[in-house]
Design goal:
binds dioxothiomolybdenum(VI) ion; six-stranded mixed beta sheet; 759 residues; 30 strands; globular; Aldehyde Oxidoreductase, domain 4; 25% strand; Aldehyde Oxidoreductase, domain 3
């Protein structure tokens, strides 16, 4: 055991090393663009140089003359590509801009694709295309003239009942202390190390798509719709994903285009988009703004909370995240009033990015909470304790479990919070001002529809199949661990297969649902296998288990076992007269429609949880951060961060630790480093590369301690798992910001907090 592989406590699984770890570090792992295809042609995208306007003409003469060029695709010869109508609005829906023109909706829109015998020829020809535009003035962001604001409650059913309870005006009027402040978060881009790639191969009328993806069945079905072919004609494969964070969850315009080109050219086509193209051909985290009013009595009891959010989206799309859904459940607020607006700008459509709703909204409320605690002269941890709740302040429904204060207590003790002098600027080490801050992490527990096939051989070997994804999170490993546990075999006997639409479908690898959903489906399949084995062993005429109560049987160490008696699996298989037992199981959340699994096959997952069930289902954490701010240069360092998290059953303490630590590092990045800068005149991303887009490097990250707090929650799903992929980076930015305030007495309400804002 080590810091990276913590000793499992109650309700936690062993820190098995990642099943795919060796393949990844040795380079054996084949990512989608590594998949060998015969005689590929190479594609290069051409993206618009204006943010708004029309393409008058594209002069292809010089480009077509480049040796090796096979074809050039523009809006003029791709009209057969179908436009997919996604449901409008909601965090799950985005159309992205699908046509290649002639209308241009954002800078970097795909307007053409060149295909050639070599990558170099395709690139050369792409740069030789001459595009004549009629350019219109673009509105890049909130304050630009020409942006249009819409209230999301008017747009979509999912947003109709945005949280509201009681009379906020009256509550705030009667409050002893009120914070009224505005907060802002910047545009962020996922920047997964693996670029956005697509390789398409037609074999007769069958298409295989190799594309890094978080959702095989979604990709398969949507590509089929795009090309107007049957979904049974399309296979999608993505065994590995080199980082996604939400950016590979949905169909984006390139995929249909590459498939279309491959069909026309009768040749496999491979596209690897460039790093800068990735900023505009995929999604990103939208810029947000928040106005919060939060009031409390002198004794610290909250009485009212108002939160209005503004989120940037594209012109044609109505994407929004509406994190007030979760923020409004966090404390016993008293009266609550929320509102969310989207602001249409001349931008590409934003989309999921790790913890999409909660990262910006919880940053805002958790900073406001710290401001109010400071105004009240209360310790921020005690302030949260006074306002802790076991029920939803909006609906009164209970939480299935909520270990927020346990997390605070454990993290505070590890951080030595009790040594904090509450006065801003009071703690120093030489030239460095020391600040200590904390904030809450929260993430809705999602449980999605999923299916799995599990095969057990007489020798104890197990194969688990489900079309889920391991985004680096450990899905291969934890799904395998569930089968090993339920079938009583060593983890090394299990092989997990993921990432192929020929496998039984799983939900989108989003919303941190994969472990909960897939482990629940795997459990169900394993229980069917157990039932067959137990029945055979107990109803046999002879043998050590003959006549045993089935309920008293279990599987362990490759044997069917009862109290004081056992027989090797191979014997039970002989009784059954089979060489393998294979079970397919379907699992859907309670209350899911009867056709939930059929929908999943059709590429539409059903997700439950968060605020939507009979009980509220959320995972919680508490994060503490120390910052040091140089008194003259205002350089900001983060020497240590401590987070304690409770997420129901922890399948694997190593992968859990890794996810949470990575999340906290990303949270530090959100607080201090990351922002996509946009040219206010041309509406173009300025720092669209890994040199200028700041992310933390080793020198920026020092001690990051993760505490796993034991928690048992049988309500969330059969596996009892809450999901940790997106919990860790929620709250960190507020904790850093609150620490900067404690160090300096300066409240910076726009992220990232860079030294120029403190100077
Ligand atoms: Mo994750 S941002 O829900 O793919």
């Amino acid at each position: 055991m080590s810091a990276a592989a913590p000793q499992p406590l109650a309700n936690m699984g062993a820190p098995e090393p990642r099943m795919d770890g060796r393949a990844k570090v040795t380079g054996e792992a084949r990512y989608p663009s590594d998949m060998p295809v015969s005689n590929p042609a190479f594609a290069f995208l051409v993206t618009s140089a204006i943010a708004k306007g029309r393409i008058n003409a594209i002069d292809q003469m010089r480009a077509r003359a480049v040796p090796g060029v096979l074809d050039i695709f523009t809006h003029e010869n791709t009209g057969d590509l179908k436009e997919i109508k996604f449901a409008s609005g909601g965090a799950g829906a985005s159309t992205s801009i699908q046509q290649l023109g002639p209308e241009v909706f954002h800078d970097g829109q795909i307007i053409a694709m060149v295909v050639a015998d070599t990558f170099e020829a395709a690139r050369e020809a792409a740069y030789a295309l001459k595009v004549d535009y009629a350019e219109a003035p673009a509105a890049p962001s909130f304050d630009s003239p020409g942006v249009e604001t819409e209230d999301v409650t008017q747009l979509h059913d999912s947003a109709k009942d945005i949280p509201s309870v009681g009379d906020v005006e009256a509550a705030l009027a009667g409050a002893d202390v009120v914070v009224d402040a505005q907060y802002g978060t910047p545009t962020q881009h996922h920047n997964p190390i693996e670029l956005f790639t697509t390789t398409c191969v037609w074999n007769g009328d069958r298409l295989t798509v190799h594309e890094p993806s978080q959702f095989m069945y979604g990709l398969k079905n949507n590509v089929a719709r795009k090309l107007d072919v049957g979904p049974e004609q399309v296979r999608t494969i993505s065994h590995f994903v080199g980082g996604a964070f939400g950016s590979k969850a949905q169909l984006t315009p390139r995929t249909g285009l590459v498939a279309f080109a491959a069909r026309k050219l009768h040749r496999p086509v491979k596209l690897v988009a460039t790093r800068d193209q990735g900023f505009t051909i995929a999604t990103y985290r939208a810029e947000t703004r928040h106005r919060i009013r939060l009031g409390a009595r002198r004794d610290g009891k909250l009485v009212g909370y108002e939160h209005e959010g503004f989120e940037i989206t594209s012109r044609p799309d109505k994407y929004f995240v509406a994190g007030v859904e979760d923020a409004a459940r966090l404390y016993a607020y008293g009266a609550v009033k929320t509102k969310v607006n989207i602001v249409h700008a001349d931008r590409n459509t934003p989309g999921f990015m790790r913890s999409p709703p909660v990262v910006p909204y919880i940053y805002a409320i958790e900073t406001a909470m710290d401001e109010l605690a400071a105004k009240l002269g209360m310790d921020p941890v005690e302030f949260r304790r006074v306002n802790d709740t076991t029920t939803d302040p909006i609906s009164g429904k209970p939480y299935s479990s909520r270990s927020l204060m346990q997390c605070y207590d454990q993290a505070a003790a590890a951080f030595r919070w009790m040594a904090r002098d509450p006065h801003p600027g009071s703690m120093r080490d030489g030239d460095w001002l020391i600040g200590w801050g904390c904030a809450t992490a929260v993430y809705p527990t999602h449980f999605g529809s999923a299916t799995a096939r599990v095969r057990l051989l007489a020798n104890g070997d197990v194969r688990v199949q489900t079309a889920a994804h391991d985004l680096g999170t450990g899905a291969y490993t934890v799904i395998g661990q569930m089968a090993a546990e339920r079938l009583g075999v060593p983890f090394s006997a299990v092989k997990t297969e993921l990432g192929d639409s020929e496998l039984p479908p799983a939900s989108v690898a989003g919303g941190s649902n994969t472990t909960a959903s897939c482990c629940s489906a795997v459990m169900k399949a394993c229980h069917a296998i157990r039932a067959k084995l137990f029945h055979a062993a107990a109803t046999a005429n002879e043998g050590p288990l003959a006549g045993q109560q089935i309920s008293g049987l279990t599987l362990r160490d490759g044997k069917v076992a009862a109290e004081g008696a056992e027989e090797p699996l191979a014997e039970t298989f002989k009784r059954l007269g089979v060489g393998a037992i294979e079970e397919y199981a379907e699992s859907a959340p309670p209350g899911a429609p009867a056709d939930a699994i059929a929908s999943l096959y059709a590429g539409k997952p059903t997700l439950s949880g968060g605020a939507h069930g009979k009980k509220l289902m959320y995972a919680f954490g508490a994060e503490f951060v120390e910052v040091r701010v140089h008194k003259d240069t205002c350089e900001i360092r983060v020497p240590r961060a401590v987070g304690a998290f409770a997420g129901g059953r922890i399948m694997n303490t190593r992968t859990a630790h890794s996810q949470l630590m990575g999340g906290m590092i990303w949270g530090i990045s959100s607080a201090l480093h990351e922002a996509t800068e946009i040219d206010p005149v041309r509406a173009r991303y300025v720092n669209d590369n890994l040199a200028d887009y700041l992310v933390p490097v080793n020198a920026d990250v020092q001690a990051v301690d993760v505490i796993l707090v034991p928690e048992v929650d049988p309500d969330v799903n059969p596996a009892g798992v809450k999901g940790l992929g997106e919990l860790g980076n929620v709250g960190t930015a507020a904790a850093v910001s609150n620490a900067v305030y404690h160090a300096t007495g300066r409240r910076i309400r726009q992220l990232p907090i860079r030294l120029e804002k403190l100077l």
